[in-house]
Write a structure and sequence with these properties.
The chain is α/β, with parallel strands linked by helices and 148 residues long. It contains nine helices and five strands; from the N terminus they run αββαααβαβααβαα. It has a five-stranded mixed β-sheet with strand order 2-1-3-4-5, with helices on both faces.
């Protein structure tokens, strides 16, 4: 998770949303991602999606033991990408009051069959500190579910 937090920090420093992700297989980071919406001029440039897309051969063949560590509760797109990449373990720092991906996991048998571990709150205080430093409005939004 610390590597994902470092990616979030780098994203924040670059003027992006402070969100980071890494894919880990057998204790080794095989890919990294950070929010790059502004840089790539794309709403789809999410940290998790970029980490999954750059997993390469190691993720393609080692997916059964893959972990996606992300600093934020994955949105529906990123959860779906993890499902389609067959990544069975998702660990995240900060819960998102709007996303409710755990409800998708609970309600959708297809998603539930693919995701074995879905755990949040890991190093959440550290992640909230990073978010608060770079984008306090985003922190308030995901914490309360209301925009200011």
């Amino acid at each position: 998770m610390r590597a994902a937090l470092a990616e979030a920090e780098a994203a924040g420093q670059a003027g992006e949303l402070p969100i980071g992700a890494v894919v880990v297989i057998d204790g080794e980071i095989v890919s990294r991602g950070r929010a790059r919406h502004r840089e790539r001029r794309s709403q789809l440039a999410h940290a998790e999606l970029l980490a999954l897309q750059t997993g390469g051969p190691k993720l393609f063949t080692g997916y059964r033991g893959a972990f996606l560590f992300t600093t934020c509760d994955p949105c529906p797109m990123c959860l779906g990408a993890a499902v389609m990449a067959d990544v069975p373990h998702i660990i995240f720092a900060c819960r998102d009051a709007l996303v409710h991906s755990s409800l998708t996991l609970d309600a959708n048998p297809y998603v539930r069959r693919h995701i074995k571990t879905y755990q949040g709150g890991v190093l959440e205080a550290e992640d909230r500190a990073i978010m608060g430093r770079y984008d306090p409005r985003m922190l308030a939004y995901i914490t309360t579910g209301h925009s200011s």
